[in-house]
Design brief:
The complex is a heterodimer of chains A (284) and B (106). Chain A has six helices and six strands. With 284 residues, chain A is of the alpha/beta class. A five-stranded mixed beta sheet of chain A has the order 3-2-1-4-5. In chain A, helix 1 runs antiparallel to helix 6, helix 2 packs across helix 3 and helix 5 crosses helix 6. Chain B has 106 residues and is an all-beta fold. Chain B contains no helices and eleven strands. In chain B, strands 4-3-11-10-7 form a five-stranded mixed beta sheet, with no helix packed on it. In chain B, strands 6-5-8-9 form a four-stranded antiparallel beta sheet, with no helix packed on it. A two-stranded antiparallel ribbon of chain B has the order 1-2. Classes of the chains: A alpha/beta (284), B mainly beta (106). Chains A and B meet through helix 1, strand 6 and helix 6 of A and strand 7 of B. Strand 6 of chain A pairs parallel with strand 7 of chain B, so a sheet runs across the interface.
């Protein structure tokens, strides 16, 4: 049987784990709430830019901010958004598996975001064009270097971690040009209906440059949102892991406390028995 | 007739629509300056001054419909609440019917 002092030590250690997991759980929850607010704010911003873009655009082709004369690489760029590693579970492996399912090095190039994903690709023997670190901060992510790469290609597909709820996170893929259009259509119910042309507006420097700039900006917002959603999924996954760890630590804490009380009681009982037996012997 | 078309811009102008003015009767326009994550100004203003590829420019009430890429500059806003200045790293400005929106960090 364990001594009460040893059990007390274990109780203290378990109590520390409960407190720590509780702090991590709260941190993950705060991050989730902050990122959700960021996404909502940037959606409103996107909506207003999209309204202007849709009124200028004469065709439906999204050119990733390229002018008509720019030659694009005739390949599809795959962009994988993964975690930096640690606490991410198997979600990164699933994402890389999904990305490599139809991968053909003659038709596709890969850019990977996140150290964990880069390792997964290297282990699968697949080379990638560029690697970017997953941004540590949760605001004003600089996606400019990524856009420079994307604009060189004819088309681009983003593979990202999707957030459905605190308990459900999955993997998803989307064609980037369709993603920007879908995002715009989602917010397009109250478009004023006016067409913006050179006849009704003054453009500086020119209509084409403004349109290219708008495409570039919307692409940046859409990309930031995919990165935010992946971060959201990672935080939610971490929150889930911490909740489970906290529950387990709480159960252990309860069991240890019962064990401690039983041990103390049994020691007290044993002492009482010895005392009673001592008295009986003395009476005899 | 209440609604007529401006010959130079083709814009429909409603003459019956009351002009926005401040307490002293000075014309104002609705101005919003914001980035994806922060609103810097959202109120009535007398004017906004910025710089684009062509050079410095001012927007006043009754300005023509206008879309421009704004360069890195010091933005100056004159409003009923006072003058304000911001350093900006660029953006896109949309002016229509006395409503000005400046999208920053785009």
């Amino acid at each position: 049987m364990k001594r009460p002092q040893d059990i007390q030590l274990e109780i203290n250690q378990t109590s520390t784990i409960v407190n720590l997991t509780s702090v991590f759980e709260s941190l993950a929850s705060m991050k989730i709430s902050a990122i959700k607010n960021e996404v909502i704010a940037s959606q409103l911003f996107f909506k207003e830019i999209w309204h202007i873009y849709e009124q200028i655009r004469v065709d439906s082709l999204f050119r990733f901010g390229r002018t008509k004369n720019d030659e694009a690489i005739k390949k599809t760029l795959y962009i994988g958004v993964t975690g930096e590693g640690g606490f991410s579970g198997d979600i990164d492996q699933r994402l890389v598996r999904m990305m490599l399912k139809d991968y053909d090095k003659e038709k596709h190039d890969i850019i990977i975001i996140g150290h964990h994903g880069a390792i997964q690709l290297a282990q699968s023997g697949v080379s990638f064009q560029r690697y970017f670190k997953m941004p540590a901060k949760d605001q004003n992510i600089n996606v400019r270097p990524l856009i420079t790469e994307i604009s060189k290609y004819e088309s681009a597909i983003v593979f990202y971690q999707s957030y459905e709820s605190l308990s459900v996170q999955g993997t998803a893929q989307i064609d980037l040009s369709k993603a920007v259009q879908a995002q715009g259509l989602k917010s397009g119910e109250d478009i004023a209906g006016d067409v913006i042309t050179d006849e009704t507006y003054i453009f500086e420097p020119s209509t084409f440059e403004v349109v290219a700039h708008l495409e570039d900006s919307m692409l940046a917002i859409a990309l930031s949102q995919f990165i935010f959603e992946s971060k959201l999924a990672q935080y939610a996954s971490r929150f889930r892991a911490m909740s489970a760890a906290k529950q387990k630590a709480n159960e252990s804490f309860g069991e240890l406390r019962t064990q401690y009380n039983r041990t103390k009681r049994s020691i007290a009982d044993a002492r009482l028995k010895e005392t009673i037996n001592g008295f009986r012997k003395a009476e005899d | 007739m209440a609604v007529r078309q401006d010959a130079s811009t083709g814009q429909l102008i409603d003459d019956d629509k009351p002009e926005a003015v401040d307490a002293d009767g000075k014309p104002t326009m609705a101005l919003k300056v914001y980035s994806p994550y922060k609103i810097y100004f959202d109120d009535a203003a007398y004017s906004i001054s910025a710089v684009n590829e062509t050079g410095p420019f001012d927007i006043l009430p009754k300005h023509h419909n206008f879309i421009t890429l704004v360069s890195t500059c010091k933005l100056n806003i004159q409003s009923p609440t006072g003058a304000q200045e911001f350093e900006i790293s660029g953006g896109l400005m949309h002016v229509k019917s006395d409503k000005v929106i400046l999208f920053l960090n785009v």
